[in-house]
Amino acid sequence: MKIYNSLTKRIEEFVPIREKEVRMYTCGPTVYDYPHIGHGRTYAVWDTLKRWLYHLGYDVYHVMNITDVGHLTGDMDFGEDKILKRALEKKMEPMVLVERMTDAFFDQMFKINVQKPDLTPRASCHIPEILEVTKKIIENGYAYVVNGSVYFDVERYMRDYPYPEFVEMDLSELEKVHRVEPIPEKKNKWDFALWKKAPPSHILQWPSPWGYGFPGWHIECTVMSAKYLGEEFDIHGGGEDHKFPHHPNERAQAFAAFGKGLARYWMHTGFVKINGEKMSKSTGNFVYLHEATEKYGGDAVRFWSISSHYRRQVDYTDEAMEAAKNALDSLYLFVQDLEEAGGGGQKDPHREEFVKRFEEAMNNDLDTVNAVKALFELRKRWYAENLFDKVSEEEAKKTYETVVYYGGILGLELDARTYRRKLLERYSDELLSFIVDLRQDLRKEKLYRYSDEIREKLKEMGIELMDVPGKTKLRFRK
Ligand code: AMP
Ligand code: ZN
After folding, report:
1. What is the mean pLDDT of residues 190-197?
2. Could you tell me if 44 and 99 are in contact, meaning their C-beta atoms sit under 8 angstroms apart?
3. Which CATH architecture has domain 16-269?
4. Which fold is adopted by the domain 326-414?
5. In this structure, which ligand is nearest to the CA of 273?
6. pTM score > 0.90 for this model?
7. Is the beta carbon of 38 within 6 A of some atom in ligand 1?
């Protein structure tokens, strides 16, 4: 498989450190709010990558952190802690907020068919490890202590290592980025915090050799990825916003502490925009993931997430979501037609070609766009050549299973039974009241033979109908 490596800015052959195993870390959510559509897309991409690596025969060990402290509103070292700010607004214990938002995150991930990572460590549970690594960085001469805070000495580090990787920036550009710099105690504007002194009002704080404080945002990922995956592992992923400052800083801390730079392959997803604009809560140009999954269904959101190439920015619009839903519906119909196909004697002339195209696409830097195209091309040919009656039952079954299997790699649950079950679940109440009303109509017409048959059949299923004046009551018995 080939992967675009943001570190070398090239497409490279993917060769994991261990022969049969891929160790992968993806930066997790800051759990101060419900997940938004951008989270949905980014994590659907990582999930697709994981499923593809499994298909290639690797065992994947996936770690994703939960940021529950240290990510400040300014995204740099100033502003308020996002978790603390929201908890105070809601008059909630910060860790209760964290727990709820983490649950909400995984609930939505489940809706878009994203498998849970093997391990989801929380920053606040790794303070001793964070302090150890911070001490090491100071000892190695790459960080300094001022007024109870610890800062990474970027200039000192740049004498030994390149910085900031992933983006082309020299010191004058770094200077521009840090133009507004409200922390005068730093030696240089571009230095970043490993540990921040906490004022007494800041309730998320821990004791440290430098007094009470809390960790900077970037250190948690260096510490937890190295702890669980080793100082050198295979893949590290995040959204494109992490190209600066988060990932260069994670990597700089790792070199400064261990002399190793964490992952070999660094991958970045393109951002989700809404109606062509940056997502922003203050202007209302913002969509929570649950809003999207409730409106269009988790499967359509998943399909939309992987219908564009992961490195591209993607625009969330109602039209795009409707189109994704319709396209997915046509795949579901195809699978249902495949399920009932057979009776002729032909082979499927297109299955092998489909598999080849799908695999080529996925091996080419996870090109899900062409993988999806291959699925639709297969569908098109089956209808154009009306293969449903021409192929043998065995062949139809093979194609059915192939489509379901490869759809599954994209996170789509195409198999006809799952689809039926989901649909029936969604409409079970409507379906039942329709049958009850129909039975009443039959009774009015005095067609008791049929109305009684409906009652008996439902009773067998544990659904009892009781006629009382003016209506029919339902009782369910297991
Ligand atoms: P956060 O919750 O902001 O810490 O982000 C968690 C992950 O989601 C990171 O990998 C971010 O890069 C990614 N992310 C945040 N916003 C977006 C967005 N609008 N589009 C795509 N990915 C995003
Ligand atoms: Zn991170």
Report:
1. 95
2. no
3. 3-Layer(aba) Sandwich (3.40)
4. Four Helix Bundle (Hemerythrin (Met), subunit A) (1.20.120)
5. 1
6. yes
7. yes
